[in-house]
Each structure stands twice: as structure tokens, then as C-alpha cells.
Design goal:
Helix content is about 45%, strand content about 15%. By secondary structure, the protein is α/β, with parallel strands linked by helices.
């Protein structure tokens, strides 16, 4: 009699299993999808957001995640977050940066300072997180950091100038992180950029790609920029 087929969760083993991954901006739809996929793949997942109620809801709805509350655009709060994570969980093997949002329209004259300050929080949080956890990622046998950028970086518009400027800065920062990783004698860390026109409807594709980052060699991934496609 043939063996019974294994459940889907057991059929595929992922290299992220046993790794500690911090998901920043985790209370979005994309954050939920990424957290669920990482937990299902066997990772230890720390979910971070600025709203305590939404983090508590995420902990209830995605069993197994570890919730943390912090304003990631504040460098001091990120340092305090790192101290809590290191004391309670240990070093991290991955950072998934999902802090973002959209504001735009109105052409160049419509690019308000208020909208720019809102959007700039995403870049500030990336800087703080990468600088705070870079030593963890370099020390890990499989360190990974990723961001979600925009296809508008290659095709900027007047109405999205603030937004695209921040995304361009984020991509430049990630190339610099990739350079740091590539200087290691035996590179084991990778900085990865995913681009989307809109993330709406691509949350599951993003989750798949995040999990798969640990299934590929760091040297192949480091500095890569790819456009997300819907699940087939």
C-alpha cells in the first residue's frame, strides 16, 4: 500500500526554518501575509508596528508571532526595540521592511511638505533598522534584508515626485547595504529589493518571495532588484 501523501505544510522544507525574522510595518495586509508565510515555513517571527491594538490583533490572528511596538522612524525607539529583541529572542537573521504608504497627486506644485514628511518616515525607518541590525545580519549564516519599492523609480511622474524620491533613496540605501554585505570574506548576507506598481493583490506573491530569500545563495541575491508578479 503506498504511503499517504504528506500534508502541504510538511511537503516543502524552507531554509528560513529556525531563523529569526523581524517584519517591520507588519500590520498591513502585506505584513499579515508575510508573517503567516514565515511562521508556516518554520521561522521565528517578530512583528513590529506603531499601534499597540493592531499588533495585539496580529498576535491573535497569526499564532506564533512575537509582537513589538515601536515608532521605527525614531532611532532611539529602534535601539530600544533591538535591546528587547536581543534580550528576549536573540540576534535576528532577517529584516523585512514593509513600512510605507502613498501620498501624491497635483503635479510638482502639489508635492506638499506634509506629504513628504509622511513618506520620509519609511526611509528613516529603513535607515534605523538596517544600521541597528546590520551586525546581526552580517554575523548570521543566512542574513537577509528586503524592502518593497516601486516601478515608478524608473518612470517617475510629477504627481508622484515625493513618493518616488523616497523610494529612490531607499533603493540607493539598499545598494549601499549590499556593498557592505559583499565586502565580507565569505558573504552570507543579502540585501534584496522588490518592486511593485501597486502592492494591492500581490501580498501573497511578496510572501512567497520573502520566504524564498533563504532558499537561494546570498551571492546570487545580494543587490538584486526584481519586479513582483502575481502568483500563477
Amino acid at each position: 500500500m503506498p504511503d499517504a501523501p504528506r500534508p502541504a505544510a510538511e511537503a516543502t522544507a524552507h531554509a528560513v526554518a529556525g531563523r529569526t525574522v523581524l517584519v517591520a510595518g507588519a500590520t498591513s495586509a502585506a505584513g499579515y501575509a508575510v508573517a503567516e508565510a514565515l511562521v508556516a515555513a518554520g521561522a521565528r517571527v517578530i512583528v513590529v508596528g506603531s499601534d499597540p491594538g493592531r499588533i495585539e490583533a496580529l498576535e491573535r490572528e497569526v499564532p506564533g508571532v512575537i509582537g513589538e511596538v515601536a515608532d521605527l522612524s525614531d532611532g532611539d525607539e529602534v535601539l530600544e526595540l533591538a535591546m528587547r529583541v536581543h534580550a528576549g529572542v536573540g540576534d535576528v537573521d532577517g529584516v523585512v521592511h514593509l513600512v510605507g504608504g502613498w501620498r501624491g497627486g497635483g503635479g510638482i506644485l502639489g508635492q506638499s511638505d506634509e506629504d513628504y514628511r509622511f513618506l520620509e518616515r519609511s526611509f528613516a525607518s529603513l535607515r534605523h533598522l538596517s544600521r541597528t541590525f546590520v551586525e546581526d545580519l552580517l554575523a548570521s549564516p543566512a542574513g537577509r534584508i528586503s524592502i518593497v519599492s516601486s516601478t515608478s523609480v524608473d518612470r517617475p511622474t510629477a504627481g508622484g515626485a515625493n513618493y518616488t524620491a523616497v523610494k529612490s533613496a531607499s533603493e540607493s540605501w539598499m545598494r549601499s547595504v549590499a556593498d557592505e554585505f559583499g565586502r565580507a570574506d565569505t558573504p552570507s548576507a543579502a540585501a534584496v529589493t522588490f518592486r511593485v506598481r501597486s502592492l494591492d493583490g500581490l501580498e501573497e506573491s511578496l510572501a512567497d518571495e520573502v520566504v524564498a530569500m533563504w532558499d537561494a545563495p546570498a551571492a546570487e541575491l545580494n543587490g538584486s532588484v526584481s519586479t513582483l508578479q502575481p502568483r500563477v
